[in-house]
Amino acid sequence: MNPMIPPTEKQDRLLYLKTAWQQDILSGVVFGQHENTSCCKDLRLRQVQKYILTGARQISHRYAKLRILQVGASSIVLVQAMHQELGKAIDSYTILDTSDRAIEDMKQEMISDDLNIRFGVNKIARDVRTLDKTTSQRPIDLGLFDLIILPKAYKEQPTTLNAIRSLLKPGGFLLMMVTGLHLLLGKSKLVLWVTPAQETKPRAKAVRLDLCEPSKPKARKRFCSSSTWIRSNGNESLAAKSFLRLIGGVLMRDDGSMRLWTVESEVSVQGGRLLIPRVLFDEKRNDRLNSLRRRVKARAPFKKQPGNLVRPIDPSELFSPSKTYILVDLNGHIGQSIARWMVKRGVRHIVITSRTMPPIEGLANVAMVQSNCFFPDLTYDALQEVLMPKVDRSAIPDEVFSDHDPDFFLLSSSISAVTGQPFQANSDAANRFMTGLAFQRRVRNLPASVIDFGPVIGLGFIQKIDSSGGSDVMISTLRGLGYMLVSERGLHHLLIEAIFIGKSNESPGITAGLGTVSGNAPFWHKSLLFSHIIQKP
Length: 537
Description:
This protein has helices at 38-43, 47-62, 76-86, 100-109, 124-127, 158-165, 181-186, 217-223, 236-254, 283-290, 333-344, 380-400, 415-419, 425-443, 460-467, 471-480, 488-501, and strands at residues 16-23, 66-71, 90-97, 117-121, 145-150, 168-176, 190-196, 226-232, 268-270, 273-281, 324-328, 349-352, 360-365, 408-414, 449-453, 509-512. The protein is of the alpha/beta class. The chain has a 9-stranded mixed sheet, with helices on both faces. A 5-stranded parallel sheet has the order 4-3-2-5-6.
């Protein structure tokens, strides 16, 4: 990079990632969950807009790169809020209305917003087959929208609603006000009702659902040919439904159709909720990383005043010269680099894998032992060889410091534990333990953080390979797997963030070292876990 030319945002590195768990949209919308966010407060959303935003946010967590259609003009704050909350999860956003004036008014109000929105004038019930002839500059594909939003109460005839539904991809979502629900049911063949158990809600909350209860034949004849009403108190039903979704998802995936459906490889049930994970860009930490090389302002979309300058964490505030810090199994090149870096930041007492126990105020276990083999070939000795440095040497200090509150308790995992490697089952088990231990300590209100490390260039095992002349082949292999090489400076920045996060209210896990641009896509690009971070070249 030319040092005379100031770096731009397009040149920023997206080193930091984070795994976010949110309630699955298929297990219900959590209304009110995001009503106190800065987005809702700053933009002053109305209640129905908050509901739409909440539903859309849950949908966007499961399905990345959404093609969204908004039928009917609305206030610009709803569109702004959708883009602010969903961000990169939006692939395209189209707004259609029957009125030229309404569309032009929205265009003028949003002229200063840097949003990629397509507008069109169309009477859907009549012109649903001619959407490619709207005022939009590009044709609008039929039947390929993942999410359709009706921000206002719809009073049109069922033909209009049917036309709107025809624009949805099979399995897509329609967010609309409840006043139009009877129109939707009018042509439905199958309805699945999922409600809380009757004793957990007032009777008035469930009266409307009685219209479609299977035990009432007249209601069934009027609204739908088949319906099911599920009431649940426990998590057993979530397990059963997840199993059925898995079967249905596999069948739909195998029939080659373009249904919007996912087969989740991992789910979590917490407090009666079904949560699914997606890896997202960690914008706050990426901003701090890039503030080392250029001026970065905090993101404050749709506000008049500019955001404050982002500043990196001052590492001198993380350590004390009067305290001792222990580094477990860090007597190699990486350990020496970390020790030198800590000394430059004021540390005066470091113990590296020593049996003496002076007053200790910080601990890091970045042990790594590789013994690659496929799971069927895994022996007990090979498993123990990898587990012991991570499991034993982390569990014992955790027990020793169970009644003590050190400055940091830093553990290391590997990026391969996030992407998955078929020949590293033993390493994956050890790294998963490190992650679980960090989360467990945080539940106990003890400091802890864990880093899913990518390959560190110039240090550790890559440097050992370099001494034998094979580093170029290894680096080429790692890049072919879609891994981003971490420099020594990047390693030190990771340590700052990990120590800082160890006592915060944030998740203790930091993921770093994944290349997110899809060219020759590596195997992990196909996983839904990473659907939010894969970018086109």
